Amino acid sequence: MIATRLPALLIMAAFLTFAPDSFAAPPHYAGGFREGWEFNANLVYFHFEDKAGLDDDLRWGFRFGYLYNPNHEIEFLWNGVTAEDSVFPGEHVDVNNFQVAYVYNFTPHRIVPYLTAGIGFVDFDDSSPALGSETDMTLGLGGGVRFFLGRVAYFR
Question: What is the pTM of this model?
Answer without folding.
Answer: 0.65
